[in-house]
Design goal:
Layout: H1 7-11, E1 14-15, H2 16-23, H3 27-35, E2 55-56, H4 58-72, H5 77-88, E3 98-102, E4 105-109, H6 112-119, E5 127-131, H7 132-149
Antiparallel strand pairs: 1-2, 3-4, 3-5
Helix pairs in contact: 4-5, 4-7
Length: 150
């Protein structure tokens, strides 16, 4: 009888097909981003390219899911690079975190008052937001479902 896989075990071995199911990004997109160094999975060490198995951490998956939301909302790859830089500095355990892309600016708001302040600035351009806290909860729930099935 197969033992139940723990969340920690699953997260230490997440490969591209599993990440594809969780984030909605295609395998080709994940491979391309890895090859171009836009997004190199943290769990892969220095391994990159053909024949290497990409391994993604929980943080990687949350970042990819947030990037996917911005991508679906029409944010350019160039601006996504800025989003990635900001996300790399975030603490995903923060109770509230929202990323805002407004023109050339990418901001992380860690409380609702700060978010309201950013969104109501005079002359504010069109903006896109992603609630990173919600992304963390959604990714965790999807991973937990994968653990339950394994």
């Amino acid at each position: 009888m197969k033992e139940k896989v723990t969340m920690e075990e699953l997260l230490s071995t997440l490969k591209s097909p599993q990440v594809e199911r969780i984030t909605g990004l295609s395998l080709r997109q994940l491979q391309y981003w890895n090859l171009t160094a836009f997004f190199v999975p943290s769990g892969s060490g220095k391994a990159r390219g053909q024949g290497h198995h990409a391994r993604y951490t929980f943080t990687d998956i949350v970042e990819l899911a947030a990037v996917k939301r911005f991508l679906d909302d029409g944010v350019s790859l160039n601006r996504l690079r800025s989003v990635k830089v900001v996300m790399d500095k975030l603490d995903l355990h923060t109770p509230f975190c929202c990323l805002v892309v407004a023109g050339d600016d990418v901001m992380a708001c860690t409380d609702k008052d700060e978010l309201i302040s950013v969104l109501t600035r005079p002359g504010q351009q069109a903006f896109r937001t992603v609630d990173v806290s919600a992304v963390v909860r959604e990714v965790k729930a999807k991973v937990e479902r994968m653990v339950a099935i394994a």
